[in-house]
Amino acid sequence: MANIKFFTGMDIPLELHKVRMVQKLNLQPIERRAEAVAEAGNNTFLLKNKDIFLDMLTDSGVNGMSDRQTAAMLICDDSYAGSASFDRLEAKVHELFGTDFLLPAHQGRACENILAVAFVKPGDVVPMNFHFTTTKAHITRLGGTVAELVKDEGVKTTSDDPFKGDIDLDKLRKFIAETGVERIPFLRIEAGTNLIGGQPLSLQNMRDVCGICREHGIMTVLDASLLQDNLYFIKAREAACRDMSIREITRAVADEFDIIYFSARKFGFARGGCIAIHDRKHFEAMRELVPMYEGFLTYGGMSVREMEAITVGLDETMDEDVISQGPIFIEFMTKELIKRGVPVVTPAGGLGCHLNAREFLPHIDDHEYPAGALAAAVYLAGGIRGMERGTLSEQREPDGTEPIAEVELLRLAMPRRVFTMSQVLYAVDRISWLFENRELVGGLRWVEEPSSLRFFFGRLAPTSDWQEKLVKKFRADFGSSL
Ligand code: F0G
């Protein structure tokens, strides 16, 4: 993104790329959107792309690729073993992280499976700033649990703390003393903490946390899936790092950790997964699991085309103009919504703009899923697909009780280099309209509730005729507009 002052006083981000390949979108009329959301059981995961205008479900595997990435995909080396495409990827990861070993996997959660199978045993506890759904699932499946040590500010939806993803060092010391190192297989830090609104950690916090772990001989693991946003925030928000290049910050981060894994659906702007390792003994502890679960050691379930795209994508990630696009668009959208009184998570993080559903819809009980209802309503209002990140995404306890999520958010992800400024402004417009009419929105109840991963497959229905009322109000306010 370019830091441009406009003669006309406009205050908008300016993209430093041009779009050279496009995909046609459909904006269905609201009556069709009402049918589509009912067909999808009010679950945005079950909507079809043909009914979606702005797909803000996720930034995973859907980022805009560059001309250089697409070109690299044509000169890949298609061999089962010893592919030159893997060698190029391995060399790039070594260049950026300084790690000596690389294990490939088909995506981020596959890396998590390998790490968990190699290191977690029943009774273990894995400390982390905050869990991610798939990370936690792999650890608990093997009889372990997770301990969240993010600082208290992290779960406050509004704040001016620039690094809400930081680990609380006192909580960490207390946790180690109480748990005992033998039950701690590793500590995990998630850069750009996903579930609390894409919030970054400071380099200083990573150094302090890893320092404490080294004192106790605890292995450290970085989930770098959202590192690109976090790198940008370290440079933009951490005074001591202002004069460092993105490459230098990347290396300083990587030097702290024993193992770094990432979903290349996010980090690398393509599709795949990697585990980068400093120490041979950690590499050997995981190596045999790759051919067992993923594929041979020189592809690990990834296509060679994707490996080439990741290699170029990682290189482009070192360019501040490239990685700033996501956070700056998100900050723009967040500020525009704040101007109109819409409750959002602050400060703006990476990944997407996060609406605070509990404040947006205070009249909806937590057991009627404010964030799920908001996801359905935002789709109705504008054909915009977001992702519920709240109680619906939690799992029931074995006795059937439903844990209420700490934060109840609707995530509107901003895949990088995908949306235009007018599309972002359209989203702001429709969300602002919905906010004005928020009292019309009602809750949701289960129609089909699967016992696990209910947010992926479950089906819900509105608790009243609120969706019909919202459609009527839309027509009254917008006439025949789409
Ligand atoms: N770690 C983090 C921090 C993630 O955000 C994700 C995926 C994963 C691991 C798993 O990687 O999808 O390649 O298997 N996040 C996606 C999202 C699904 O929409 O936020 P994966």
UniProtKB/TrEMBL annotation:
> One MF term from GO for this chain?
carbon-carbon lyase activity
Instruction: Determine the domain of life of the protein's source.
Output: Bacteria
* Aromatic amino acid beta-eliminating lyase/threonine aldolase domain mapped to chain residues: 55-426
Similarity comment: Belongs to the beta-eliminating lyase family.
> What organism is listed for this UniProt entry?
Candidatus Scatomorpha merdipullorum
Q: Which cofactor does it need?
A: pyridoxal 5'-phosphate
Asked if Nucleotide-binding is a keyword of the record, the answer is no
Keyword Lyase assigned to the entry: answer is yes
Write out the GO biological process terms.
Answer: aromatic amino acid metabolic process
Pfam families from the entry? Beta_elim_lyase
Q: What is this protein called?
A: Tryptophanase
Keyword list (alphabetical) reads: Lyase, Pyridoxal phosphate
What residues bear N6-(pyridoxal phosphate)lysine in this entry?
K266
Question: Which lineage is the organism of this entry classified under, starting from the top rank?
Answer: Bacteria, Bacillati, Bacillota, Clostridia, Eubacteriales
The protein's matches in Gene3D superfamilies, at most eight in alphabetical order, are given as:
Aspartate Aminotransferase, domain 1, Type I PLP-dependent aspartate aminotransferase-like (Major domain)
